Amino acid sequence: MLKSREFSLRRGSEIFAWGALAALFLIVLALELPAPLRAATIEFLFVVAAYLLITFRFLFPRWNYLPRLVYATLLIDALIVGVLNLLLGEQISNFEFFFIPLILTSAVIADWRGTLFLAFFAAGVDFFIEPGMLLSNSSALANQILISGAFFFTALIAIGLVAHIRRRARESADATVRAAESERQSRADAEKSARQWQIINAVGLRVQQETGATPIFEMIGAELKALNLECLIALWDEPGKTLRVDYLSMAQTLQKYLERLAGISLRDFRIKIADLKEYQEMLATRRAQFAITSEDSLRRVHPTLSMPIIRQIFEMANAHRRIIAPLIANDQVIGVFRVWGNDLEENDVPAMTALAQHIAIALENARLYRDARRRLAQVTTLYEFSRAIAATLDPAELGARAIQALESFLAYQSGAILLVDADN
C-alpha cells in the first residue's frame, strides 16, 4: 500500500508539473513578447523541462523520496519561479505569489525552521530580481516588503495548521493504538480468566475422584505453568507459628540450583509467620491477598542471604508478584496456598481463592481417606486376631496364635505374652 501511495504521489506531482510547464509554454506563445525575451523564456522553459525530467525520472525513484531531496527541489523551484518572474513579471501581474505553493509544500515535509527559511529564501529571490528599481522607488520597495510579509505570514499559518493536523493525527493514532492495546489486553484477560476457571473446574472434578492430594497438586502445578505461574502449598509444621513446604511446582533443576544458591534445603525450610506481616494479615482476615513482594521480605526470612543473591532468586523465580490464600478446612486454617509470576494481577485473587478452596477440600478428603483406611485396618486386625484366638482353647497354642496374629497384622518383628504366676 505504501509503495502504491508513493507511486500515485509521484505520478500526480509529475503530471501537475508537466501540465504547469505546458501551460507556461502556451502563455509565452500567447503573450506579445519581444522576440529576444520570447526566445530566452522558451529556452529557459526547456531547461526547466530537463530539470523535471531528471527530478522525476532519476532522482525521486532512486532516492525513494527522501525529505531532504524534496526540500532541495523546493529551493530549486523557488529559483525557477524567481527567474520566470524576471522574464514574465511585466506581462503577468502578481507572478510573485507562485512562491506560495512552494511555502505550503515545505510546511508539509519540513519543520518550522525549514518552512521559515524557504519563505526567507523566496523573499530574497524575489527581492534581488530588480534591486536597482526597488532601491530607487520607495513604493516598489514598500510593495516588496508587503509581499515578503505575505510570504512569512503564509509560512506561519501553514506551520500552525500543519502542526495542528499532525498533533491531531498523532492523538488519533495514539488513541487507536490505545484502543487496540486495551482490546488486546481485555481479550488476553478474558482468555486468562477463562483458563483459570477451567483449571478450577478441572480441579473440582479431580477432587471428587482422587483420594490422594499429590496427584491434584501436580495437576494444579502443571496447569498454572501453562499460565506462566508457579505455586507453593505449605501446611502447618507448628500450628500458628511455622509452615513446611508440602508441594512446589518449580522445576527440580531450578529448585536444586536455588537451594544451592541460598544454602538451604527445601526439606528443612520453614516459613516463620512471625517474620512475615502479610502472612499474619492473611491468616487474621482469612482472605487472599495480592502484593508485589519486596526483596526485603526474603531478607527478613533469611538475614544471611546477600542482596545480590536475593535479586538473582527473585529474577529466576519471577517471584515479585504474588497471591497468598489460606487453606481452610472445617473452619480451620490448615495451610497456605501461594501463587507467583510476572503475569499475575490483583483481579486474579477470586480465581486463586477458589483454587485454594479446592486444594483444602482435596487435603481434607485425603485426610479422611487415610483415617478411614487406618480404622479399617484396625478393625480388620481385631477381627483376624479374634478369629485366630477363638479357634483353640489350649493356653499354649492360644498364646502362639495370638503372637503370630499380632506379628502378622501389626508388622511387628517379635512379640511376647507374659502371664502372671500366682505362686511367684
What is the average of the pLDDT values?
A: 80
Poorly predicted sequence stretches spanning 5 or more consecutive residues: none
Number of helices: 14
List the strand order in the largest sheet. Answer: 3-2-1-6-5-4
- Content-based structural category: alpha+beta
The biggest beta sheet is recorded as: 6 strands, antiparallel
Q: In angstroms, what separates the terminal alpha carbons?
A: 114 Å
| Helix proportion | 55-70%
How many strand units?
A: 6
Q: What is the CA-based Rg, rounded?
A: 45 Å
Shape, per Cα inertia axes: rod-shaped
Approximately what portion of the residues adopt beta-strand conformation?
5-15%
Order of helices and strands: HHHHHHHHEEHEHEHHEEHH
Describe this structure in words.
By secondary structure, the chain is α+β, with helices and mostly antiparallel strands. The chain has helices at 2-30, 35-63, 67-88, 99-109, 112-127, 131-136, 138-209, 213-226, 252-262, 277-285, 295-301, 307-317, 349-390, 395-409, and strands at residues 230-238, 242-248, 270-272, 289-292, 321-329, 332-340. A six-stranded antiparallel beta sheet has the order 3-2-1-6-5-4, sandwiched between helices. A hairpin with a 3-residue loop joins strand 1 and strand 2 (242-248). The longest helix has 72 residues, at 138-209.
